[in-house]
Recover the amino acids of this structure.
């Protein structure tokens, strides 16, 4: 037996296990690219409009920090690559992080990896299988991105360069996650480490692009954008991505031999001899378990808000005389700037829904990992246990959404000299809270009734994203659009807030959560 024995079988197992998860990731990223390409080709009908928009972006540090260097944005292809930008590449990095983390550290943490290793399976088989699958997914994604861009009549060379840069990001962060999986013994620790690397990569790239460009070469996202798709394509930065991915993969294999199965290189610190008072209640325990995610999501939304708010003052110039772009932003009454903020606040609300669903699904992970049973063996009942996690999810969602609105208001208020915008945009962001709660309530209801289908909450979020972001482009019928709770939230701050729809959404969310908690009390705990 060699260290790679059983790799083929594990690859087939991963493909079988993630037969839905992988296509969803690919489809979501392809939808982002396709919608961007379609919107650019629809908005800019003439070269004069493209050139005028390029002049507005120019060397504006806010735009460059948010999306990346503006290579060839006076062309359709360059504009598409720039608008997908650093955000789209970060999404690819998240895909690699979640897929590799799920198939490596999560398997060890649950104990399944030890059972697999009891068979004829080599020490490096699991890591090799996970990296092989994610590398294949990244390459397939890059190829499909290239084909989509070629399909909308963009130059083949630029399309292939952009697709290759997408694949390169996937390879690099798959390897980074494999290294992170050796460091800590908890999956959330891996996601925290790699998530921090993604955030630092974005920030370093932004600082480098706004500055003299030196710091950009310390960021994998910067390497991908250095290919200059649809401009004077440069292929050698792709070799840098591949080389780093190979080196980090070798490091991951070397570190695997330095630790026991299920353990991490950095042992967890022993806790205090006695628990603090707040850990003696279900609510305190739930908050302790989810505080890392709450802090991380809040910080991410605050930084996103800062980025959007910093370009708010420039939106009138960006729109110019482009009628199509004006129509998109002016979906509601009010100025173009308010319509822009209505769109960006909707985007941040959709992102905040990720925390809501993740937090609600903590109930499922606690149940399947067997940690719920010891808690429920005490005088704590199911209602108190589940209600504590639901409370953290609901209140935490308010904090996350408020962080995004606060960042947007601060950046826009400072740039305009009107700090009254802080409370105005904060209130506008919080208006989306009931819609986010509905998705959380739906997730809790599914968890209580059909626990194995709890991940359907993510599918509901994907549907809301399609309706909210791509709906105007796809001309979806009203019956489909109205299925999204976000479609019933006034387009604040461009429109006036009305209490009736927000109250109705809150009641629906509460009813769904109650149904889920009621169903949980009437079923057995499920550990698989």
């Amino acid at each position: 037996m060699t260290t790679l024995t059983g790799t083929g079988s594990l690859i087939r197992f991963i493909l079988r296990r993630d037969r839905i998860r992988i296509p969803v990731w690919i489809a979501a990223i392809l939808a982002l690219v396709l919608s961007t390409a379609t919107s650019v080709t629809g908005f800019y009908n003439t070269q004069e409009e493209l050139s005028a928009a390029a002049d507005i972006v120019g060397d504006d540090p806010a735009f460059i920090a948010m999306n990346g260097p503006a290579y060839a944005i006076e062309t359709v292809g360059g504009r598409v690559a720039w608008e997908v930008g650093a955000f789209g590449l970060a999404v690819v990095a998240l895909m690699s992080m979640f897929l590799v983390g799920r198939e490596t550290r999560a398997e060890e943490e649950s104990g399944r990896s030890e059972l697999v290793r009891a068979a004829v399976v080599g020490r490096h088989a699991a890591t090799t299988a996970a990296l092989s699958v994610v590398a294949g997914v990244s390459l397939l994604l890059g190829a499909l991105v290239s084909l989509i861009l070629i399909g909308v009549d963009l130059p083949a060379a630029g399309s292939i360069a952009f697709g290759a840069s997408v694949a390169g990001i996937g390879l690099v962060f798959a390897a980074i996650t494999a290294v992170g999986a050796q460091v800590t013994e908890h999956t959330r620790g891996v996601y925290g480490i790699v998530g921090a690397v993604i955030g630092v990569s974005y920030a370093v790239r932004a600082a480098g692009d706004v500055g003299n460009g030196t710091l950009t070469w310390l960021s994998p996202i910067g390497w991908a954008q250095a290919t200059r798709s649809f401009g004077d394509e440069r292929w050698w930065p792709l070799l840098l991505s591949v080389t780093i991915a190979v080196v980090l993969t070798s490091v991951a294999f070397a570190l695997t031999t330095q630790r026991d199965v299920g353990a991490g290189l950095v042992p967890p610190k022993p806790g205090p001899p006695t628990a603090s008072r707040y850990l003696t209640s279900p609510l305190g325990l739930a908050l302790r378990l989810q505080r890392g995610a709450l802090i991380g999501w809040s910080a991410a939304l605050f930084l996103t808000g800062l980025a959007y708010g910093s370009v708010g003052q420039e939106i009138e110039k960006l729109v110019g005389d482009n009628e199509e772009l004006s129509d998109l932003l002016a979906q509601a009454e009010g100025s173009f700037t308010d319509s822009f903020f209505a769109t960006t606040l909707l985007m941040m609300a959709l992102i905040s829904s990720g925390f809501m669903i993740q937090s609600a699904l903590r109930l499922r992970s606690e149940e399947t990992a067997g940690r719920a049973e010891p808690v429920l063996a005490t005088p704590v009942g199911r209602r108190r246990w589940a209600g504590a996690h639901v409370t953290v999810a609901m209140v935490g969602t308010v904090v996350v959404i408020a962080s995004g609105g606060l960042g947007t208001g601060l950046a826009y208020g400072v740039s305009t000299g009107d700090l009254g915008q802080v409370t105005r945009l904060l209130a506008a962001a919080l208006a989306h809270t009931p819609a986010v709660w509905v998705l959380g309530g739906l997730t809790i209801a599914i968890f209580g009734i059909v626990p194995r289908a709890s991940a359907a909450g993510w599918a509901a979020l994907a549907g809301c994203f399609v309706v909210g972001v791509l709906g105007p482009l796809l001309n979806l019928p009203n019956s489909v659009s109205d299925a999204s709770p976000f479609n019933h939230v006034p387009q604040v701050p461009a429109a006036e807030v009305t209490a009736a729809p927000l109250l109705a959404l809150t009641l629906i969310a509460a009813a769904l959560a109650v149904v889920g908690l009621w169903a949980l009390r009437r079923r057995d705990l499920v550990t698989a």
The two ends are 31 Å apart (CA to CA). The chain has 24 helices and no strands. The chain has two domains: 1-263, 278-523.
